Amino acid sequence: MQLSDSLNQLIEALRCQPGIGPKSAQRIAFHLLERDRKGGTQLGSALTKAMTAIGHCQTCRTFCEQPQCDICLSTKRQDSGTLCVVESPTDVLAIEQTGQYLGLYFVLMGHLSPIDGIGPKEIGLDVLEQKLSQGGINEVILATNPSVEGETTAYYIAQLCHKNNVGASRIAHGIPVGGELDLVDGRTLMHAFSGRRVVTQE
Amino acid sequence: MQLSDSLNQLIEALRCQPGIGPKSAQRIAFHLLERDRKGGTQLGSALTKAMTAIGHCQTCRTFCEQPQCDICLSTKRQDSGTLCVVESPTDVLAIEQTGQYLGLYFVLMGHLSPIDGIGPKEIGLDVLEQKLSQGGINEVILATNPSVEGETTAYYIAQLCHKNNVGASRIAHGIPVGGELDLVDGRTLMHAFSGRRVVTQE
Ligand SMILES: [Zn+2]
Ligand SMILES: [Zn+2]
């Protein structure tokens, strides 16, 4: 049986989703066609819309449909003088879900990885340094992942902080080494925040 | 953190896929936005196209973008005089993947389920009966699932066959009771075909 072109294309396209192999993709395609065409159509529109409408906040770089996100626009958050640096928007989401951090964020959208051509500029560190030099930030919480690249990136940013006389701390306890920040539960994440240590200047 | 509307809609829409819960949907959405916008856009188009372009074959009711599918149009298949009745297009796919069945199909797109208001007409048995009465079919292979509803449906169709003097057989060996036809491997499926029994007339 030759599947129709549109069906083959759909099965192939479904595999862009992490965790969806060829067999799962086929089952999803047939499920939607047989039992949930409305859901499939809605998903098609939602994807098309999201991929074009969702950009990045000009200030913190997280996902945003406006020039600036709600967090960056909040005067309460601005007054906190605290900036948490994370690798990805999912990390912002994980921290916000604890409801206990009330400062600003800066989202790198990655980490330093010279081997892949990802230097300071690629992860927005020029924008971050400008922000640090402008004043208003007293402490930078380095919440990059506890991987080699995450640590290297945190260390690099700590240097930027020192240069601009801004305190830098690194979240510490609770996050399993090699793990991913956004997979950690809220309580562990809050332990990591309260157990943060000042990064000493060399 | 309030997620943007488009992002919330995307996460919600992703859940139309079987096996995708809220956490998986969130991870998929962020993955596509962060690392594979091209894949996300292609999936959006593929879904939109598939949900409108893919209809049903007028003859066998399987998924098809033309009025009739390739199998129904094949004179070799027509000459076989054998018609295999299955519940869903995925069953056709599973049987075709064995490469050993060379007859025609009829796809019920479900099974009899009076409690859900699914009677003979809802699963196309009026179309099937018309086909049987027209001649050209010598044997109907009843390959509905080995569930209570599948057995009931097979029995009902066997009666239609008897009425029209067409032989009816039920696939038997190898398919685990309560299992699903399209999850069985090709060899087991072929055993089930060769071990089919004639359904005796009451
Ligand atoms: Zn922002
Ligand atoms: Zn057909």
TrEMBL record, chains A, B:
Cite the InterPro entries for this sequence.
DNA_Rcmb_RecR, Rcmb_RecR, Rcmb_RecR_Znf, TOPRIM_dom, TOPRIM_RecR
Q: What does the UniProt keyword field contain?
A: DNA damage, DNA recombination, DNA repair, Metal-binding, Zinc, Zinc-finger
Positions of the Toprim domain: 81-176
Zinc finger C4-type: from-to: 57-72
Q: Which SMART domains match?
A: TOPRIM
Origin, by domain of life?
Bacteria
Q: Which residues form a coiled coil?
A: none
Q: Record's family?
A: Belongs to the RecR family.
PANTHER family, per the entry: RECOMBINATION PROTEIN RECR
The job of this chain, per UniProt, is described as:
May play a role in DNA repair. It seems to be involved in an RecBC-independent recombinational process of DNA repair. It may act with RecF and RecO.
What is the name attached to this protein's record?
A: Recombination protein RecR
* Organism whose genome encodes this protein: Pseudoalteromonas marina
